[in-house]
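Here is the promised in-class demo. Please do not try to memorize the tokens; focus on the logic of going from shape to residues.
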């Protein structure tokens, strides 16, 4: 059946996020005529998982080679996750900014990193300004010396 192939493909696509049969739950909640439309089914699954850019970023940053896969297979998974994380950056400059923001956040103390990340800075200068503002206004976080 065509719908079973769509569900199998989407289950594979979302294997990093599986648990609790959410693919099947999303399918069951749809109108019958919509279940054969890949884009509508994918949108329902994305909504069911509450998948965001952050979800893909976390999956990308924590990817590891499993015993069942080769490193060549892992490369495919890493590239797929990178593409899903970075899909909205249309040009190279935006992509470089995203990478620079990520590196800056990784260098911050955990509490500061969470606070800045919640504000979703789009460019590294904005992330730096947010971190400085937080540090200047009575935060318990201090800069490394």
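The designed amino acids, position by position:
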């Amino acid at each position: 059946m065509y719908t079973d192939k769509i569900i199998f493909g989407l289950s594979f696509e979302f294997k990093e996020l599986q648990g609790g049969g959410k693919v099947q739950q999303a399918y069951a909640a749809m109108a019958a005529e919509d279940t054969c439309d890949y884009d509508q089914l994918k949108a329902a699954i994305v909504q069911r998982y509450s998948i965001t850019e952050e979800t893909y970023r976390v999956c990308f940053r924590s990817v590891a080679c499993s015993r069942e896969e080769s490193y060549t297979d892992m490369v495919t998974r890493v590239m797929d996750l990178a593409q899903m994380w970075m899909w909205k950056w249309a040009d190279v400059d935006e992509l470089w900014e995203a990478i620079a923001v990520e590196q800056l956040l990784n260098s911050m103390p955990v509490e500061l990193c969470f606070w800045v990340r919640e504000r979703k800075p789009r460019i590294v200068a904005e992330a730096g300004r947010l971190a400085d503002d937080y540090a200047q206004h009575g935060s318990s976080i201090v800069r490394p010396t």
